[in-house]
Amino acid sequence: MAEALVAAFTDNLLTCSICLGEYEDPRVLPCHHTFCYGCISNHATGAVTRGKTFPCPLCRKTTKFPKEGLMKLKKDFRVQKAKELLSQQHEVSRSSIMKEPDEHGVAHGIQEMMIKCEKHPTNELKYYCEDDDSTVCGDCAIAEHYRHGIVTVEKAAISKRKKIKTALEKTLSKQDTFKAAAIKITASELQDFHIREASINNIKKQAQHIRRLVDQKEQTLISEVNSAYDIRKKQKKANKDILENHCASLQSAYNFAQELITNGSDSDIMIQTKALTERLTAIEKMPFPTLDTPVQVSYCPGNISTVGLEAMLGQVAVQLELPLAGLETNPKTVTQPPVFLEKAECVHSFSAKQKDDTRNMSITGLAVDEQHVFIVDRMKRNNRTVVFTHEGQFKFDIKLQSPFDVAVSQAGHLYVTSQGDKCVKVYSTRGQQLTTMGLGQLELPHGITLGTKGQVIICDNPLIETKSLFTFHADSGLLLNTIPLTMCADSQYIAVNKVNDNIVISDLDNNCVHVLTPSGDQLYQYGTQGSGDGQLWCPYGVCTDSHGHIFIADWGNHRIVALSPQGQFIRYLATKDDGLKYPAALAINPAGQLVVAEEKGMVKTFQYL
Questions:
Q1: Contact 584, 541 (CB under 8 A)
Q2: Under 8 Å between Cβ of 300 and 204
Q3: φ, ψ dihedrals at 149, nearest 5°
Q4: pLDDT tens digits for 137-155?
Q5: Are residues 294 and 321 in contact, defined by beta-carbon separation less than 8 angstroms?
Q6: What domain of life does the UniProt record list for this protein's source (predicted)?
Q7: Global pTM?
Q8: Distance between CA atoms of residues 520 and 452, nearest Å
Q9: How far is CA 305 from CA 66, 200, 215, 298, in A?
Q10: How far is CA 586 from CA 488, 540, 573, in A?
């Protein structure tokens, strides 16, 4: 069994697909493809985009360039296991003792391989801190994780393995669906060939009677048929490539997870679980692409006569198919229109008000990134931005002068509108102030968001002057653009629709939401004062999801309104009957769920698709 395991590792895991040599310092990408560190560094450096991403050389899935450098890419534990096994096998081969390798010893050795602590190189990472979700050595557990929940890695790995296995099982049926669709496209190519030949033969038979008159028309019709099927063939190939890419991505994740479950040490499990389960969950939720409607080509012979060449030879009827979106240069999955759940489910909630805190809260701002939830509490005695984990554990707070709203960038910068300082304060996500922007330009900054190109956009809502949108460069703080909001009486919150770059603004006094083009022209508005359908009462926070849906915190009516990208009412995601009270700020978390911050401090997460 050990020899078979060694052979499997040698064939599948030890060769880099870029240099075709044995791995040197193997690093694994988020898509779970592995390359030499030097190879992937050269590739990423040459292929990096303006958005600081680079594609995987195999599956083309984009990877965010780590801000700390490519050394932050995780090492592939499987390759190290393979080398250990090969080394053992080599020693056995050189030995004069003619006996089978100790399979139990090899497996036990793999299980016992532990990763050393970076701060204490002689210590093994034998413990798991539940509070910080990290593996630590004994010294670190005492010095840096005092009073945290500490358990042994062996105990924690049991539940983590089960979590990976559960996520893995959900992806298997999705992989079979993609494989079956790819096979179906391949099988249909022969049928297409026969239909194509039959159409051309019928055209030729009909043309024999009037050849001298209709040569040109005959060739035109044949050209139409060939053109239609040539296009179909290209589209089929592109569709097949998309499906095969999905299959490859699924297989890669499956193989990695299976190897991790079977051969990964407890430390490997701890290191890989979070990223791998997120990847497997994303694959499990991956919608099946809508494939194209087959081209229908038919030939209708005409009655032979000396009049009307068009009628004599007939015509080719082609029902054109639309290609899958993005096939031209950058293939993307064509998704089914998302279906809202019959009733949105509150999957998590926590109170932003600490147990020993007797002060009231007044939440006005909310932002979410991969690790934290950022909340603005503008109650006069508080005046702070509070940082929590997704589970609701308090981390720290930042004191400001009358803060209102908050946004967080992928680069890890926190942007907070400060009405007291009449500017935007910029912090690291650890709370260190980096800079300010808009000082001397903003009068009463309210809502803030990030554009699709990373620019910072603020609603400035002075009491007397015209309301305006200010756009700043995220890094330099340079003012890029100003758009007057003449349609707004009291502009509060802002969001940018990632699907079409439209701008969504809540207008408190007019009890409506305005939707503008990127240049500031009004497309439409939703809402009038009231509590019925199509009405709003003091609309506060707004946000959009990856599908272009618009969400409105209807504060006075205690409900969340969901609109289509075109502004049509879809449904109420949550209402007072669901326990919702004075929703103030909204955000979409990395899992695609809607996070709602109520004014008095409750933070609730809803699954709505």
A1: yes
A2: no
A3: -75, 105
A4: 999 988 888 889 899 989 8
A5: yes
A6: Eukaryota
A7: 0.49
A8: 16
A9: 73, 21, 15, 22
A10: 20, 9, 12
